[in-house]
Design a protein that fits this description.
- The protein has 339 residues and is of the alpha/beta class.
- 36% of the residues lie in helices and 17% in strands.
- The longest helix has 20 residues.
- The termini are far apart.
- The protein has a single domain, classed as Glycosidases (TIM Barrel), CATH 3.20.20.80.
- Strands 4-5-6-7-8-9-10-11 form an 8-stranded parallel β-barrel, surrounded by 6 helices.
């Protein structure tokens, strides 16, 4: 039996343990695993490491790299891993917004690529996985900047080919009427550009309506290995209905990755709803779905994890975290066995 087949068998056995009828839910908690576990791959609905062990990534996302580049620093990344218990960081690189990769000039693009590579290197240094996020938002349809995306991912995957801690998120939140057919067409152009340099990297694909309609992807998934599908939620807005959609998609066999979530409302601001947030985490942990919280900044909004009054970029005291930041810190530490 070759190694790849053996890994698949081990993952299948892991999925079978404690399963509910008709689901792939694993009841036992996964131990904290960081990037020292090596390259990941997708088996069924979950991530596995090279030894076939189930891996659940839990961590935080930066805000837009053009706006808050200062948090991509050595001490901060060390703190996220060692103190917060994060095993993944998402590098959110806006495309269309002010000074985005596509809206800014050539110098800005060069600077952003350099910052992304720095983030990947720091994540590797501190044994964290890292998501390179093509953060579309106001551009709505990822096909708007498909040519630039293809060139970016071709270059980035070539530059980062020696790093086994990298995941690629190729379109953050398709919106504005963008269909699953549109997204599939885009993905079918972008994924081969990555695969030309990295045959096995895990790739996360956004879903329609700000990455909520995972049911559309479940009905017609892409025909590639090591692909997952983004689900985004904000706990004060998205509740039982979206949780049901997510659970049904998982039961249908769709590998979901929550590459962005907040515990406030969908604007990224407003009321913080810990009760609904805890319901979401309970569901995600039940199915070993990975999740990344938004956002690592001191922006004056309730989704920001650092208090607006705090100008530090590392060495955060608990009193210097926002309400959402304290919840995120406690939740991640508990699941990493640090609480």
């Amino acid at each position: 039996m070759d190694k790849r087949r053996m890994v698949a068998v081990l993952c299948t056995l892991a999925l079978a343990i404690g399963c509910l009828a008709g689901t792939q839910a694993v009841q036992a908690k996964t131990a904290f695993q960081d990037a020292s576990s090596g390259a990941l791959h997708v088996e069924g609905t979950i991530l596995c490491d090279a030894d076939g062990k189930v891996v659940q990534l839990r961590g935080v996302s930066t805000h837009g790299l053009s706006w808050y580049p200062e948090y991509v620093n050595d001490k901060c990344f060390k703190e996220l891993h060692d103190k917060w218990g994060a095993n993944v960081v998402r590098l959110a690189m806006y495309t269309e917004e002010y000074n985005g990769y596509c809206s800014g000039d050539a110098a800005n693009r060069k600077s952003l690529k350099k910052l992304v590579k720095k983030g990947v290197q720091l994540a590797a240094k501190y044994d964290m996985y890292v998501i390179v996020d093509w953060h579309i938002l106001s551009d709505g349809n990822p096909k708007t900047h498909k040519k630039a995306a293809k060139a970016f991912f071709k270059d980035m995957s070539k530059s980062l080919a020696d790093y086994d801690n990298v995941l690629y998120e190729i379109c953050n939140e398709p919106n504005g009427g963008t269909t699953w057919k549109d997204i599939k067409s885009y993905a079918n152009d972008i994924i081969p550009a990555i695969r030309a340099n990295d045959e096995d990297a895990v790739i996360i694909v956004g879903t329609p309506t700000w990455s909520q309609e995972v049911d559309k992807a479940a009905a017609s998934p892409l025909k590639y290995e090591n692909v997952m599908y983004a689900l985004h939620f904000y706990a004060d807005t998205h509740q039982d209905s979206l949780r049901k959609t997510a659970e049904n998609a998982i039961k249908a066999g769709l590998p979901i990755f929550v590459s962005e979530f907040g515990i406030c409302d969908a604007s990224g601001n407003g009321n913080v709803n810990k009760t609904q947030a805890n319901k979401w985490i309970k569901l995600l942990d039940k199915y070993h779905v990975s999740y990344v919280g938004w956002n690592l900044s001191n922006k004056s909004e309730s989704s920001a994890m650092i208090a607006n009054s705090c100008n530090k970029t590392s060495g955060f005291k608990r009193s210097e975290l926002s309400t959402a930041g304290k919840w995120m810190y406690d939740m991640l530490r508990k699941r990493a066995g640090k609480a």
